[in-house]
């Protein structure tokens, strides 16, 4: 026993499905990075730190402020947080002390997660018990990993170990 309402909904659904394209094109320029199949730039072999990253964490300290940035290897700065921002500066006693680094780490991690950046390359070597270590600990506690995953390498047919594809969900 079908009602007229059920028939009209099913016919609307059929019209929607017939007009929907069979192929979906993702126009997000960073989609391949999220799928781990984009190329990471190697840079030149004589460069000391190297450039094998998609996103890199840069922490800059000046005499008056501290700045944390995420740098994309092509587009430059993507996310930035400073202790000189009015909302943060108003809450801090000093904008270059340990508490400032601690709170900057929290805000920076939150902004990264809001923008969808959960992994980044970090080559900062902190001093044990220092300000920079507290900043990095807060970024990690905020949910951001400080290492990027490796690029997915397609296995050969004769390989014994076949890694899981990052775009497939195995639940």
TrEMBL record:
<comment type="similarity">
    <text>Belongs to the universal ribosomal protein uL18 family.</text>
</comment>
<keyword id="KW-0687">Ribonucleoprotein</keyword>
<keyword id="KW-0689">Ribosomal protein</keyword>
<dbReference type="GO" id="GO:0006412">
    <property type="term" value="P:translation"/>
</dbReference>
<dbReference type="GO" id="GO:0003735">
    <property type="term" value="F:structural constituent of ribosome"/>
</dbReference>
<dbReference type="GO" id="GO:0008097">
    <property type="term" value="F:5S rRNA binding"/>
</dbReference>
<dbReference type="InterPro" id="IPR057268">
    <property type="entry name" value="Ribosomal_L18"/>
</dbReference>
<dbReference type="InterPro" id="IPR005484">
    <property type="entry name" value="Ribosomal_uL18_bac/plant/anim"/>
</dbReference>
<dbReference type="GO" id="GO:0005743">
    <property type="term" value="C:mitochondrial inner membrane"/>
</dbReference>
<dbReference type="GO" id="GO:0005840">
    <property type="term" value="C:ribosome"/>
</dbReference>
<protein>
    <recommendedName>
        <fullName>Large ribosomal subunit protein uL18m</fullName>
    </recommendedName>
</protein>
<dbReference type="GO" id="GO:1990904">
    <property type="term" value="C:ribonucleoprotein complex"/>
</dbReference>
<keyword id="KW-0496">Mitochondrion</keyword>
